[in-house]
């Protein structure tokens, strides 16, 4: 059993390294010979890493990366607060749910990026425009999951709360919101994927001016600097990895009490 | 006997539909209708009163005309076909391999551990970050766009399939083994059906994401066709009512796609407990 564990660990560490070495060997030796015209598109991992260190592991990150992260966090944060509050309100009342239904049906299926040109008419290419669009896009998964979570409140819990005369704010604070939390987290997680797409699209749209990963990629494209294009992708991968890690930690902490729920229910 | 009794009681109850019960049914139509009417009235009032400049936001007549123009333009329908076609092709190109490799990975610890880091690293990369690179290498082609959609879809399906396999009732697997069912057959007759419940739960969200990526590529890459490209074209022609009309059309297409995805999910899961005897959702 112990040897199996060791073998598994070895495989887990070795495979990514092997992939990188093969990738390096292919881009450094095979590609220049087999199809020399495309080598410019595929720099070696070493070149990409150097580029990455220069542009993102230096004060340059304040121009290339940080503005994107700030916009993302602000937009996503607004959507999380608005989405959860509205979701709890809408989920608790069938009248409000019916009243809001047309709006939700209209926006939930709309790919948020189509609002980019419209919002740009009003706000121009500004931080406000980007943050508004990120918030608009991530709102719907959060809102819909919060509504669902509140609605699927267990019958016994609901009845117990009534028996114990838990009313008003306490009912939300101690009964409804905790019961809906697993589903709310499912929504928050789904919204991260959507928000990451939109933050990049909105920065790429009419880029050139402004800072952030979008304009970094756009300038790299017009300058045919392919190492930069790869380094930018690498940066987003690392950001996503860190973000997912933090998310998992918070979720584990907040939902510690919540056991044995399966993914079919949770998503 | 008891069945007949309950049934007759039910019939009598239905005949005694009180006015409050009738209202309960009617409000499902009336309340949403109120919102629609109020919002449309508010929209027009804001523009008529000059609170919002109608160069930025067209009034209802202008929007209606633009919708008429867009809906009689064959380019709109070609755009719809391309946008949805790319999204669906990309969805399938991502979902099928993702789920299949996920099934194998869920069954085999070696495969799982070998892929784990690579998947965890590639998964959070938003596919649109690849747009500048891919649009140079492959050009503004349909293949490039399908690749980008698939890149976004493959990971959630992989992961969901892994979870799905892990949640299989061990009795089912043991039973298959006792009956001497082979590895491949077990995969398709036990593992796949059990895991499909898990996999189906991510279908709806990911179809929406595929459409999002499809439209994003249209907006970002010049030379593509699709509803997003038409939107940008109208924008470049300073045709503001046309842009709004296109947004409305895209919203309706999105609804249609979502509705289709829900139907597909129901079809895949009609036997599952989460979908039995549930009308809402």
Describe this structure in words.
- The complex is a heterodimer of chains A (267) and B (281).
- Chain A has 267 residues and is mainly α.
- Chain A has two domains: 1-41, no CATH class; 43-266, MetI-like fold (Orthogonal Bundle), CATH 1.10.3720.10.
- Helices cover 80% and strands 0% of the residues of chain A.
- Chain A has helices spanning 2-34, 45-56, 61-64, 66-92, 94-108, 115-123, 127-151, 155-163, 168-204, 213-222, 226-254, 263-266.
- The longest helix of chain A has 37 residues, at 168-204.
- Chain A is globular and about 75 Å long.
- The two termini of chain A are 34 Å apart.
- Chain B starts with a helix and ends in a 12-residue tail after the last helix.
- The model of chain B is unreliable at 1-11 (pLDDT under 50).
- In chain B, helix 4 packs parallel to helix 7 (142-166).
- With 281 residues, chain B is mainly alpha-helical.
- Chain B has helices at residues 2-15, 19-48, 60-72, 74-107, 109-122, 131-137, 142-166, 170-178, 183-200, 203-220, 227-236, 240-269.
- Chain B folds into two domains: 1-52; 60-268, MetI-like fold (Orthogonal Bundle), CATH 1.10.3720.
- The chains are: A mainly alpha (267), B mainly alpha (281).
């Amino acid at each position: 059993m112990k040897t199996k564990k060791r073998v598994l660990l070895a495989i887990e560490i070795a495979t990514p390294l092997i992939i990188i070495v093969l990738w390096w060997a292919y881009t450094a030796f095979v590609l220049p010979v087999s199809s020399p015209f495309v080598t410019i598109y595929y720099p070696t991992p070493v070149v990409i890493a150097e580029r990455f260190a220069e542009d993102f592991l230096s004060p340059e990150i304040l121009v290339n990366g940080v503005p994107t992260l700030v916009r993302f966090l602000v937009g996503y944060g607004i959507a999380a607060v608005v989405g959860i509050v509205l979701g709890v309100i809408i989920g608790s009342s069938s009248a409000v749910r019916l009243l809001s239904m047309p709006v939700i049906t209209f926006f939930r299926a709309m790919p948020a990026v189509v609002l980019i040109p419209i919002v740009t008419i009003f706000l121009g290419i500004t931080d406000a425009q980007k943050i508004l669009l990120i918030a608009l896009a991530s709102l719907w998964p959060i809102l819909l999951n919060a509504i669902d979570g509140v609605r699927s409140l267990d019958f016994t819990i609901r009845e117990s709360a009534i028996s114990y005369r838990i009313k008003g704010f306490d009912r939300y604070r101690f009964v409804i919101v905790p019961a809906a939390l697993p589903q709310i987290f499912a929504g928050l997680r789904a919204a991260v994927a959507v928000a990451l797409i939109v933050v990049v699209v909105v920065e790429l749209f009419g880029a050139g001016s402004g800072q952030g990963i979008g304009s970094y990629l756009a300038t790299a494209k017009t300058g045919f600097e392919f190492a930069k294009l790869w380094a930018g992708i690498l940066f987003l991968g690392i950001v996503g990895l860190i973000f997912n890690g933090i998310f998992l930690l918070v979720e584990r902490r907040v939902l510690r009490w919540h056991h044995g729920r399966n993914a079919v229910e949770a998503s | 006997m008891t069945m007949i009794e309950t049934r007759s009681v039910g019939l009598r109850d239905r005949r005694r539909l009180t006015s409050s019960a009738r209202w309960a049914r009617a409000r499902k139509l009336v309340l949403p209708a109120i919102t629609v009417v109020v919002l449309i009235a508010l929209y027009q009032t804001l523009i008529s009163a000059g609170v919002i400049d109608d160069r930025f936001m067209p009034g209802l007549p202008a929007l209606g005309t633009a919708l008429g123009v867009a809906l009689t333009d064959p380019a709109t329908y070609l755009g719809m076909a391309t946008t949805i076609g790319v999204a669906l092709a990309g969805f399938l190109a991502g979902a099928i391999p993702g789920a299949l490799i996920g099934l194998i990975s869920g069954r085999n610890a070696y495969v799982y551990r070998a892929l784990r880091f690579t998947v965890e690293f590639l998964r959070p990369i938003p596919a649109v970050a690849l747009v500048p690179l891919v649009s140079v290498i492959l050009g503004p082609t349909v293949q490039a766009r399908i690749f980008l959609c698939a890149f976004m879809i493959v990971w959630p399906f992989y992961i969901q399939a892994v979870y799905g396999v892990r949640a299989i009732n061990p009795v089912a697997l043991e039973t298959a083994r006792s009956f001497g069912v082979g590895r491949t057959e077990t995969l398709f007759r036990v593992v796949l059906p059990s895991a499909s419940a898990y996999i189906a739960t991510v279908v709806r969200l990911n179809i929406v994401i595929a459409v999002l990526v499809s439209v994003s590529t249209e907006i970002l890459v010049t030379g593509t066709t699709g509803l997003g490209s038409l939107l940008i074209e109208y924008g470049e022609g300073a045709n503001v009512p046309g842009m709004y009309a296109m947004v409305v059309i895209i919203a309706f297409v999105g609804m249609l796609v979502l509705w289709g995805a829900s139907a597909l999910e129901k079809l895949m899961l009609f036997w599952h407990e989460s979908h039995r005897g549930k009308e809402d959702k």
